Amino acid sequence: MKIAAASAFDKRKSADVLIVPFWEGAKSAFKENFSSVALEDLLDSGDFKGKLGEVAIFYAAKAKEPRCLLLGLGKKENVSSESLRKAFAAAIKWIREKKLKAVHLLFPDIEEEMAPSILESVLLSNYAFTSLKGESSDDKSPRLIETFLMFGISSQTASQIDHYQTIAESVSLVRDLVNGNADDVTPEMFAKEIPAMLGKKVKTVVFDRKDLEKEGMGLLLAVGQGARYEPCMIQASYRGNPQAKEHILLVGKGITYDTGGLCLKSADNMLTMKCDMAGAATMLAVVKVAAALGLKINVTALAPIAENAIGSKSFKQGDVYRSFSGKTVEILNTDAEGRLVLADAIAYGVKNLKPTLVIDAATLTGAIVVALGEEMSGLFSNDESAAKDLERASQRTGESLWRMPLYDYKDSLRSDIADLANMGGREAGSIKAALFLQEFTGGVPWAHIDMAGPAFLSKPKGYFPTKGTGWGVRLLVDFLEQRAK
Ligand SMILES: [Zn+2]
C-alpha cells in the first residue's frame, strides 16, 4: 500500500472513498473545509452519532469520491491512541469488504502525540494471508487498499510514515510465518531463509543439530528428536550502540508444530499449534526492525527451533535429559516442551552473550489463556525497571500485558531423580512455567511474556486479523526505542 500525506484537498484527484471523522455528538473532527448537502442530510437525520468505530455511508456519484464514509471517533474527551486505532480499524474493515482500492482521509484534528496511531491502525488493518488460496479463488488477489492519501496531516506525523511502515512490515512477516503451513515453516526453513529476511545489518549465526550437540543443548535436542526436521537455533544480533554495555537478549519459543509429543494433544487443542513458533518469529522480527530503524541499542535474538512430533523417536515421559546449564530435567509431560527449548537458549545466551537483560516471549501455557483470555499476555519479571518499562510500552502500543506473580511454587517442580521436573501440576500452570524458566536465567534481570492468548486469534479483533496477529513486535520495538533514548 502506498500511504502518504497529500496537500491541496480542493485539487485532489478521484478515489473510491473519502473517510470523514467525527467526534461523538457528530461534531466534525477534521480541519479541511469540507461540506456537502448529502453530509448535512445524513447528520440531520440523527442516524449517525459518532460513537467509537461507528460507520455511516452516503453516496455522491458526481463527487471526487463516490462514497463518503463517516467515521465515529467516540467522545472527544476520551480519545486515546488505542481508541483511534479501534475506530480506524472499523473503517478499513468496511472499505476492504467492499474491495475498494483508493482511499482519501480527512485527517482528524488531534494531538500530535496520538496521530501516529492512525497510521498504525491503517497499516496493521490492511493485511490478508492468501498464499494458500487456490489460483481460481476470488480471494487469491487480496482485498487490500492500494493507495491511502491523508489530507490535513501535520508534517511531523507525515515524517513518521516510513517508521511505522517498517514496523508494520515486520508484523506482517510474523503473521505470514505463523499462518504458513507447519510443513513449510519448518526448522530447516528458519535456518535457510530467515537470515536473509532480517537484512544486512543483522548478523546471524545458525546452529544446526551437530552444533547443538557440541554445545550440549540436551533439552532442545530432546524436544526435536521425534521430528523429521532437525532442530536448530538462530542467533540474530544487531549492535546499534557498540560503546554501551547494555545488551538486551530476546529469546523466543520456536516450536514449528506442537503435537504435544507422546503426551498427545486433543484434536481441538492441536488445531492451532502451527502458531507455537510465534515467540521466535516475533523476537527475530524485533531485531530486524531495530536494525532497520537504526536504534541506538545492542540487541540479540535467540530462537530455538524444533518440531514437537509424535513417533518412535520422540522424547519420552519419565526420562531425564541434561540441559545446556548442566541441570537435569525429568519429563513429566512432553507437551511442556516450550520451557525446555527456552531453558537451553536462555542459559546459552546468559553464558555466552553476557546480556544485561533477558526477555523471552512464548506461546507457553494454556493456563495463561484461562487466566487472561485471548487479548492479553502475562508478564513475569524479577526486575522492576524492565517490568515497568514493558508495561508502559504496553499502554502506548495497545498490546496488553498483565503482570503476574513469580510466587514461590518452586517445590512443585521438584523431581526425585533429576534436578527439576518440567511440570508442577495444573494449578498456577503459567506461574510454574515461568519459575521453571527462571532456573536458567543465572540471576540476570529477566522478563517473561506468555503470549499464548493474543499471538493467534480465533476471530479478528480490531486491527488484529484472525489467526496470526504479530502481537508483541510493536510492544518490544517500543520498549527498545525507549531504552535507546
Ligand atoms: Zn506443548
Helix/sheet category:
alpha/beta
Architecture of the largest domain, CATH level 2? 3-Layer(aba) Sandwich
- CATH class of the largest domain equals Alpha Beta
**Helical element count?**
15
The proportion of residues in beta strands is 15-25%
Descriptive report:
The relative contact order is 0.11. The chain has 15 helices and 21 strands. α8 runs antiparallel to α11. The chain has two domains: 2-153, Leucine Aminopeptidase, subunit E, domain 1, CATH 3.40.220.10; 164-484, Aminopeptidase, CATH 3.40.630. Strands 8, 9, 10, 11, 12, 15, 16, 17 and 19 form a nine-stranded mixed β-sheet that branches. Strands 1, 2, 3, 4, 5, 6 and 7 form a seven-stranded mixed β-sheet that branches. A three-stranded mixed β-sheet has the order 13-14-18. It is of the alpha/beta class. The longest helix has 19 residues, at 161-179. The model has no long low-confidence stretch (mean pLDDT 97). The site of zinc ion has 6 residues, from loops. Zinc ion (ZN) binds at residues 258, 260, 308, 335, 337-338.
In brief:
The protein is an alpha/beta fold. The protein has helices spanning 37-45, 81-97, 116-125, 155-158, 161-179, 187-197, 209-215, 218-224, 267-270, 278-293, 338-353, 366-372, 384-397, 429-438, 473-484; strands spanning 2-6, 17-23, 27-28, 55-59, 67-72, 102-106, 147-151, 203-207, 232-239, 248-252, 254-258, 298-308, 320-322, 328-330, 357-362, 376-381, 400-403, 420-421, 446-450, 456-457, 467-468.
